[in-house]
Amino acid sequence: MRVVLFTGKGGVGKTTLAAATAATVAANGRKTLVLSTDPAHSLADAFSCGVDAEPTEVASGLYVGHVDTQRRLQDSWGDLQGYLTSLLGSAGFDSLRAEELTVLPGAEELLALIEVRDHVRSGRWDAVIVDCAPTAETLRLLALPEALDWYLSKALPAERRVVRALRPLLGPAVGLPAPNAEVWAAAERLQGQLLDVQQVLRAPETTVRLVLTPESVVVAEARRTLTQLALYGYRVDGVIANRVFDGGDDPWRTGWAQTQRRQLREVVDSFEPLPMYTAGYLPAEPVGAEALASLGAIVYGSADPLATVAAADFLQVRQVGSGFVMTLALPLVDKDSLDLTRVGDDLVVTVSGRRRVLALPSALRRCHVRGAHVEDGRLEIRFQPDPDQFPRGSEVHP
After folding, report:
1. Is residue 297 in some structural domain?
2. What is the number of helices (H) and of strands (E) in the chain?
3. Could you give the CA distance from residue 211 to residue 244 in angstroms, rounded to a whole number?
4. N or C end of the chain: smaller count of CB under 10 Å?
5. Of the ranges 54-68, 84-98, 377-391, which one carries the lowest mean pLDDT score?
6. Spatial distance between the Cα atoms of 116 and 129, rounded to a whole number of angstroms
7. CA atoms of 351 and 354, how far apart (whole Å)
8. Residue 119: pLDDT band by 50, 70, 90 thresholds?
9. Residues 271 and 167 in one domain
10. Phi and psi of 375, rounded to 5°?
11. pLDDT top residue among 379 and 106
12. 366 lies in which domain range?
């Protein structure tokens, strides 16, 4: 099973290229589903057909799906929202206002990922192609499962202990409803779904494909996106440069072609060894499965649209002398955009405003951070064992 997530700056044509890739994969004989986590849901327009919650076959072996986030919202968030609504009602909020305040931010996009997880786990498909939202929204979305799981892991046990201790004081005494077993079960069910989503998205068979146009602003954002995706542990398997001019006789087209050639060289230099595919500036918009399959055939040529590339592990720990070095693979990272903080047993890494909390391995929790530096797309952090945590003469292993 292959899963490919498409993203890129808004307006670069990622929906069209996700659809073209799916059409090409299906034309090669593999049963393919293409879904969208973008609230705009432009896939139906790309295929010029109606799309329902149940995947619709639009060509032989090619299915298009529309995520029913309202049903998912009720299944995954309904019990929790009901409790929070009653809590706010007890505090004096009217029911409409209370319901508005208990809507989970990013819920629709997150639940769309749970839907993707379900399709991947179903075994119905050879490939699942996902048309994601533009890069900023996609980065927030892909960071959300881990962030929410971290919060629930920290908060749930503590909250259950607090509620158990305060239960005699809740209810009649202060008029606040205590969460029942269904509420805790709903929270734990949501946490389990988030963990499974992470496993699917970080599996070796799941990759991200970046779509860009050969313009300096777009290329710069794509470079940052590559680094930030690596920060969250996602693998990028290729770049598609869209709307490329093939030259021309008139000065306007010639100027654009020359500018694009400079940017394409920048793309190759920046993203190598990732493969770069190109899609020319077409005279008409490709709409429908047949036109999209034709576009995909041009983009990929004889290459396999589902080909993967070798990728280094995001996180490695090795022993160096009496200490340790933790290495994080962050391609194209700029040291000036990087911030590193140790918080208890966690390491907080921030790149261009995107933050990830990493739980330190057991041995490193008993070490002090002694320095860090960036080299060839790698962040290397040095740790030295704390003598009070490691008795003299004891063996130290990462």
Report:
1. yes
2. 11, 15
3. 12
4. C
5. 84-98
6. 9
7. 5
8. very high
9. yes
10. -150, 125
11. 379
12. 315-385
Which residue do the tokens 């000065």 mark? 251
Copy the structure tokens of residue 61.
């072996």
Question: If we measure between CA atoms, which residue out of 12, 10, 16 comes closest to residue 34?
Answer: 16
Q: Same structural domain for residues 181 and 38?
A: yes
- Domain CATH number, residue 73: 3.40.50.300
pTM (2 decimals)? 0.78
Domains in the chain, number: 2
214 and 320 both lie in a single domain: no
Let me know whether 7 and 153 are in one domain: yes
Which of the listed residues 302, 330, 356 is the one where a domain comes to its end?
A: 302
Q: Are 34 and 131 in contact (CB under 8 A)?
A: yes
Give the model's pLDDT for residue 32: 97
User: In terms of domains, do 256 and 172 share one?
Assistant: yes
Pairing mode of beta strands 346-351, 354-359: antiparallel
Helices 69-90 & 181-201, crossing angle to 10 degrees? 140
Question: Please, which residues bridge with residue 147 across strands?
Answer: none
CA pair distance 275, 277, nearest whole angstrom: 7
Secondary structure (3-state) at 133: coil
By CB atoms closer than 10 A (0-12, 13-18, 19+), residue 7 is: buried
Question: Which tokens in the block code for residue 347?
Answer: 């390491």
Q: Report yes or no on 396 lying in a domain.
A: no
Domain identity same for 129 and 198 = yes
Helices marked H in 202-248 — which ranges? 216-231
pLDDT given for residue 184 in this prediction: 55
How does DSSP assign 74-97, residue by residue? HHHHHHHHHHHHHHHHHTT--HHH
Calpha distance 209→241 (Å, rounded):
11
- We report the CATH number of the domain holding residue 331 as 2.60.40.790
Contact 55, 64 (CB under 8 A): yes
Per residue in 98-108, pLDDT (tens digit) is 454 445 555 66
Over range 18-26, report the average pLDDT.
97
The DSSP bridge partners found for residue 191 are none
